Amino acid sequence: MKTIKYILGSLAAALSLTACVGDLNVTPIDPNANTADKALATEAQFKAYLASSYLGFATSGYYGANGDPSISGLDGGASQYIRGLFHHSELTTDEAVCGWNDQTIKNFHWMNWTTDDTFIYAFYSRILMQVSATNEFIREAAKYGENVANRDEYIAEARVLRAIAYYHAIDNFGSVPFADETSIVGSVPVQMSRAELYSWLENELLDLINNSALAAPRANGYARADKGVAKFLLAKLYLNAEVFTGTPQWQKCADVLKDLMDDGYSLHTTANGEKFSAYQDLFLADNDKCTDEIIFAIQQDGVNTTSYGVTNYLIFASTGGTMDPAEMGISSGWGGLRTTPEFYNKFGSDDKRSLFFTSGQQKDIDDIGDFTNGFAFMKFRNIKSDGEPGQELGFVDTDFPMMRYADVLLMAAECQVRGASIDGLAAYNQVHERAGLPAASAITLQDVIDERGRELYQECWRRNDLIRFGMFTTDKYVWQWKGNVKEGKAVDDYRNLFPIPDSDRLANSNLQQNPGY
């Protein structure tokens, strides 16, 4: 299907990751150490190899934003992992449209994608590449790292990163080809059903949470995988259990959340500076200071870790029209991303989270291709909390907060409304009041889904939420250009899953297409 220029080839690459993964600061591996037994002999070499698994979420390859991507045949910028996650999670919903004419990008919002869509193929490939990369690390570390003191901790960490990729697989594609570290390299993988993958993920995450080798929550340093990340993923799995398996698990989700809520995380409520609110701090160029709330982040650095995906994409693509790029901390805008009127209308005038540019923009989207149609996002910026720009104007320093404590609180609120035993109202009000809004005396499911939208927009959870609430494909909720008509309309329910790309099915006769395609 494709060439993956990865695996042990990465050991011979010069990995300079001084800002990519927190304290995984590494120096290049000796190019002469070109076999695993030589390249995995010291603690520093282990860290270098583990860093490459983090790098798969942060960039398109090892050679800079303009270098060769790790997967041949794909555009390095458009195929980056988090950018692909955004395409699938946000462009398909009421949250975002993109006005470009890049191949099939508009089909996401129109909800009429096909089985040979380039962007779907790219994201699917990125997910499976992350699985392959972590599998190889786990396999080689177990063979050659007997003299490395923290080997078991690094292996457990890599397993968490693999679980993140498999979570995105089960959410977006359902039944996917499966492999772990025990799989024979080069063998053709067998497809695992969605229910089977759910069971595997549940067991894997429970084992990691109970694994003494994995660092305790908040003990591994910023942006490193630990038990807090594993618990967050398990809570998400249980939250969506009814979608994934047909059987709801609200109380199981609530129990994991209660455990996670005792792990020392809290909402970030005190601003780091005087220019921005505490909420805005979470999306600025020095948001690595927000370790109170951010459970896991994909790090970006405008000098050392550059990419045309992740937050570089979110900030540049959200800037256009009469917007001043300097206010966003960048050199120029790409003029792509805006929101729909239905989503914008969810924010009241007193909501501190309403971070949109409206001057010179019209609320209605008459033409997706016109950047002035729809209000633009100003949530993520390459500006520090003191008002100064990031290191560079061409690439950003802003990290992508993949998992936040605010999400934990809103999951608790949903679990309570759905019948679980947990104080979800108090949790909901923590988030609501930080936004400058009065506490609620009671909440409904509609309150929860709207609050999740207001709190978590652009953070790649919207499609997942709308599906769980029965609002993604149905006429229960429509927005402009859903179904490729301006007023919006329902689409077929099979679009709750994306198709297995044609190219992979042609290469692997074990794969069956998702129903409806």
Notes on the protein architecture:
The chain has 517 residues and is mainly alpha-helical. It contains 20 helices and eight strands. It has helices spanning 9-12, 36-39, 43-58, 81-89, 105-110, 118-144, 151-172, 194-209, 227-239, 241-245, 250-260, 278-281, 310-317, 325-328, 341-344, 405-417, 424-434, 445-456, 462-468, 502-507, and strands spanning 97-98, 176-178, 190-192, 294-298, 337-338, 356-357, 376-377, 400-404. The strands form four sheets. The chain has a two-stranded antiparallel ribbon with strand order 1-5. Strands 2-3 form a two-stranded antiparallel sheet. The chain is globular, with a radius of gyration of 22 Å.
Summarize the SSE layout with pairings:
Layout: H1 9-12, H2 36-39, H3 43-58, H4 81-89, E1 97-98, H5 105-110, H6 118-144, H7 151-172, E2 176-178, E3 190-192, H8 194-209, H9 227-239, H10 241-245, H11 250-260, H12 278-281, E4 294-298, H13 310-317, H14 325-328, E5 337-338, H15 341-344, E6 356-357, E7 376-377, E8 400-404, H16 405-417, H17 424-434, H18 445-456, H19 462-468, H20 502-507
Antiparallel strand pairs: 1-5, 2-3, 4-8, 6-7
Helix pairs in contact: 3-6, 3-7, 4-6, 6-7, 7-8, 7-9, 8-9, 9-11, 11-16, 16-17, 16-18
